[in-house]
Each structure stands twice: as C-alpha cells, then as structure tokens.
Amino acid sequence: MQKSLARRMDTFRSRCTELGMALTHQRLVIYEALAATDEHPTPEAVYERVRKSIPSISLATVYKNIRSFEDAGLLRQVNLLHESVRLDANLDNHHHLVCVQCKSVTDIPEDAIAPVRMNGHAPGKFRIQRYNVEVLGLCAHCASARHS
Amino acid sequence: MQKSLARRMDTFRSRCTELGMALTHQRLVIYEALAATDEHPTPEAVYERVRKSIPSISLATVYKNIRSFEDAGLLRQVNLLHESVRLDANLDNHHHLVCVQCKSVTDIPEDAIAPVRMNGHAPGKFRIQRYNVEVLGLCAHCASARHS
DNA sequence: ATAAATGCAAATCTTTTGCCATCTC
DNA sequence: GAGATGGCAAAAGATTTGCATTTAT
After folding, report:
1. Which of A27, B49, B89, B103 could form a cystine bridge with A35, CB 3.0-4.6 A?
2. Which of A79, A92, A127 sits opposite B86 (nearest CB)?
3. Same-domain status, B26 and B74
4. Helix B59-71 crosses helix B25-35 at what angle (to 10 degrees)?
5. pLDDT tens digits, residue range B23-67?
6. Domain that includes residue B48, residue range
7. Which residues in chain A have their CB less than 8 angstroms from residue B107's CB?
8. Cα dihedral A126→A129→A130→A134 (10° resolution)
9. How does residue B85 score in pLDDT terms, banded at 50, 70 and 90?
C-alpha cells in the first residue's frame, strides 16, 4: 500500500522540525505538490503547479527547496545516480554498478544478475522489452575510505 | 566477453555507411574515444579527450555527433530514460516502469519484481546496498498507438 | 558536384548564487 | 530578535542552432 498524502505530509513536518528547517508556506506547498503525485514532475513542472496557489513564488525557491528535500532524504531523483548525462558505447545488454558516493558507474554483464522477472501479472498493459538493473552501493574505493 | 575496440569500430563504420553518414575524421575520433572506455564520460569529457588529437574540434561538433550516434543506435545514454531531472517523493523502495516512447515513468512496488540477485561473487569489492530495476518497454497507451 | 559535416558564435535552457527583505521559531 | 528562507536578478553551466566554410563521397 502507498503511504497516504496525509501521512507523507506528517513525515515531512516531523523531518523538517527534526532538522530545524522552517515550515514555511512555500515549503509546504512545494512538498505537497510533490507528494500528491506520482508523475515524477520536473522542477519546472513543480514550479507551474505551485504557482497556482502561490503566484508570486520564484523558480529559484523551488530549486532551493528541492535541494533541501533531497538533502533531508525527503525526495529522490529518479536518476539520482549521475550528476549529468553519461554516455555508454557498450551496446551489449548489461547492467550497472553505481557507487552512491563517488557516482562511478561500472558495467556488469547481463548474466551477472539472475534473470529479473515480474511477480505474476504485468502491470497495466505495459509491454515489457527489457530490464535495466542498477546495483547501488559503495565501490571498493569508497567502501574502504569509510574506515578512516 | 566484451567486444574488442576494433570490432566496435568496424560496427561503427558499417553502420555509418549503412546510414549514409560521412566517415569524417572527427567522427571516428569521437566514437573511438567513446568506444575505448567504459568510464561513461560526459560530453565535456569526450570533448577534452578528443581535443588531444584534434585541438581545433568544437564542442558543438561533439554534441552533434553524440546525438547522431544515439540516433544511429551506436550509443546509449546511461539514463536514456528521461529528458531531464525527474523527482520522486515516494520514499518506499520501489522500481520503475519506463516507457521508451513517451518517457513516462510509473512506480511499481518492490515486491512486484522477484528479488534480484547477483550470480555468484559480487564483482570487485563492491558493497551492494540495494537494487534499482527499470522495466523498459511500451506503456499501454504507446503500445496501442503502434497499431495505427 | 552535391550533400553532409565542421567550427564558431550566439541563442536557449537549466540550475545556482548573492543579496536584501521577510518570515518562522 | 536571531537565524533561516523567499524573491529577484544576475551568473554559471549545459546543450542547441544558424550559418558560412570545408570535407566526404
């Protein structure tokens, strides 16, 4: 079951208090816009939505808060993994090891991972073509740096 | 086994010819820079590398060619999935259905997918934290639009 | 010779920053 | 009232575009 909007807002409020983040009107509206949808909006899209209730809000404020929410663990980027576009000339099907710390990306062959399968029914009428697995964790280097 | 650089360059040449793309010096050098590494460089990084052999090359040329290579299926973005940053307030562990056509992203609960496991040994000394699965394919809407 | 590709500069888009006014605690 | 936050405008970055020149076929 998905967490209800009300519960998410509660979590939001407590976490803000916990971190000493002021509960401003704009913050509440921005977070609600995010928590109320599962459409993975862009910052721009969030801005447009929030503008409906706070026409004077600034795009910079939206960006600043998105940042704060990420830092607070209240938000994730769908691709939190790489700071910018990354390219890959390896056309063989493969998966990635992504270091959550240094953001390095390492290819792993497709067969290094047990075949992924949906449990039961495919959701909706989605026509599956392939699976992309990102293995998140700490690379050897970052893992050992932790011991310092 | 990974395809050798030489083989990749062969594929590159044939595909270019096939598509009527001129085999310019810059193109060869750019593609080689990409094919010779698995470091997932940014466009900027590619530019810097290519500049070593063609100091006069323009960043715009690098961008233009990256585009062409993607279109030609000679290159993939690691996150080919979304055109820009996408946000997600759903903090529960979950996976994504990504429509390769309309780029829509839909959450699916973690347990909709059979637990992912590495076959045998974890590569290197990578310390695995969690798995992120992207199920790529066509959403119901785009799948049906195909029949037109 | 023709069509495509390059290089350059300017344009566009996205995201961040600095600073003062304002608001929360 | 002190410190955090918002708004605005400017800055910084990333990517694209237009156009004249050069290059591949």
Report:
1. B89
2. A79
3. yes
4. 70
5. 999 999 999 998 888 777 889 989 999 999 999 999 999 999 998
6. 2-79
7. 38
8. -50
9. low
Say yes or no: Cβ of A64 under 7 A from any atom of strand D.
yes
Q: Which residues of A27-46 are buried (b: 16+ CB within 10 A; e: fewer)?
A: bebbbbbbbebeebbebebb
Residue A59 — very low, low, confident or very high, per pLDDT cuts 50/70/90?
Answer: very high
Query: Chain A: residue nearest B146 by CA?
Result: A127
Residue owning tokens 């399968």: A117
CATH number at residue B48: 1.10.10.10
Task: Using the 3D structure, point to which of A79, A100, A135 is the last residue of a domain.
Answer: A79
Same domain, yes or no, for A25 and A59? yes
Q: What is the pLDDT of residues A103-122, one digit of tens each?
A: 677 878 888 887 778 876 66
Mean of all residue pLDDT scores within chain A: 82
Residues of A whose CB is below 8 A from B97? 123-124, 126
Q: Is residue A16 over pLDDT 90? A: yes
What is the model's pLDDT at position B23?
95
Q: How far is A19 from chain B (nearest CA, A)?
A: 18
User: Nearest nucleotide, C1' to the C-alpha of B23?
Assistant: D24
The distance (Å) linking the CA of A47 with the C1' of D1 is 32
Q: Which of B79, B111, B133 is the last residue of a domain?
A: B79
